[in-house]
Amino acid sequence: MPAHIPANSLTDILFEQANHFVGLYDVAQGWFTQVNPAGYQLLGYPSAQAFYHDPVRALRSRQLPPEEWARLCEEVLQTGRQEVEAELSRLSGSSFWARLELHSFTHEGKPHLVVRITDTDHLRATERRLSQSVGRFEAVFAHATIGIIVCNRQGDIVLANEKAQELFDYPTGALLGQRIDLLVPDAMSHRHERLRESFNANPQVRAMGHNRDLQARRRDGSVFPVEVSLSYFHLEDELFVVSYVIDITFKKEAERELIDQRQRVERLNAELEQKVTDRTHALMTTLAQLEKRTEELGQALRAEQELGELKSRFVSMASHEFRTPLTAVLTSTALIEKYPGTDQQDKRVKHLQRIRASVNHLNDILEEFLSVGRIEEGRIEARPVELNLGQLLHETIADVQGLRKAGQTIVPELNCPAPVYLDPSLLRKILVNLLSNALKYSGEGSLVRVRAQCQGSQVLIQVQDQGVGISPEDQQHLFERFFRARNVANVPGTGLGLYIIAKYLELMNGTISLQSEVGVGTTVTITIPL
Questions:
Q1: How many Å apart are CA 370 and CA 362, to the nearest integer?
Q2: In a domain, 259, yes or no
Q3: From the CB of residue 376, how many other CB atoms can be counted at a distance below 10 Å?
Q4: Closest by alpha carbon to 460, among 384, 389, 365, 359?
Q5: For residue 242, is it within any domain?
Q6: 17 versus 12: which is more confidently predicted?
Q7: pTM, to two decimals
Q8: Cα dist from 30 to 26, 58, 113, 281, whole Å
Q9: Within a domain: 135
Q10: Among 235, 210, 216, which residue's Cα sits nearest to residue 159?
Q11: Do 304 and 362 share a domain, yes or no?
């Protein structure tokens, strides 16, 4: 029978609080006279008025065309309630599946319907996923290549796949309801029951039969070797145990055959090894001694060759570098004795200055020797501090001004305004050495450029001269101790400067590269990370 619902109660409960479509359908007018906010939003209308004045005046659905909707309304008026599933379209054209519940009532003597529409797309998608998941499980379970048996806590078999029934030689479905102990040999039945109770008390995924062989019993009572792994799951607070069973008959036979073959091979190997050991022991001992002597001789020879080469270079350099300043000292000393008068003081000063310069030159040579020694003994390390690169660069240029030849010019180019974090002592020595080389091997009136710039996390410094240049053959040896290029053999120098620079840069994690062309000049580039 149609129900009479008070209007105030209907407005409060259905229209204001419902989170799905609730509408009042006037059967005589053939359209809704009232709809809640969730309702017109579900169907894609911007407002209730837009829904009321929709010219179509019908729910958009292939399952509910006008004649079917009219028939459904008639059934609701007769029975009081109907429920259907239909695919509805929103005003935008998108569709969704929904459940429609229709209830009849009378208002002011006219038949009306209460229509409730619930979006069931999510429910349908969930059901579809569940169906697919169940289908996949059934396919994997049924067609698995190993036996799978599921038991309850009491040990009753509730599921067994085809492979399990084949392994134990039971017809389809015959294992269901049987006790799992039926598949265990009689000798192990009592132990198996205790193990099952222990597993039920503390279920965990694991393999059975650690360090022992397992056997299973077929329907005819025969036994066969197996590997069994256990798993478990809970369903509605009930524990279920899953057994994965693999027949390893062929594996065991192969293992036995392999053991027999291995034993035969081991006996033959033992006999052969004993003969080989006896015959080769003396030879191996002799070879070991010979290799040791050969290695010792090779190391001694290499050390002797390196030492001889270094001695030769050192003697050659020292005889050249020490002779010139010492000759100047002796000559100047002899000349000073010839100028005893006070009116000849300017000549004495000139020779004293030559003596001082020669002594300083000898001191510089000795300082380079000492630096090499300290580096190779590991007594020098980088101590970075915050410094002004521009200030250090200008101070270094000022230190080498006295080395300039007539007309030589040093042009600095700096692009690093912010302070940097480097070892100022090592960096100053590197710059002094590079600038000294640039001035020494360049002619009068030449230009030496010094560029320093900060690029991201590193400092790039270039020293470019217009000197004699270095041949490609000599460039590959420049960073060796006491090495000097052939085209500067007559220019004073120890051959240690670039070697020391390279070692200082190693301490600062920096690198050095060189580009040079004979008769054009040389550009040395050093890169130091900040």
A1: 12
A2: no
A3: 11
A4: 389
A5: yes
A6: 17
A7: 0.37
A8: 6, 8, 10, 111
A9: no
A10: 235
A11: yes
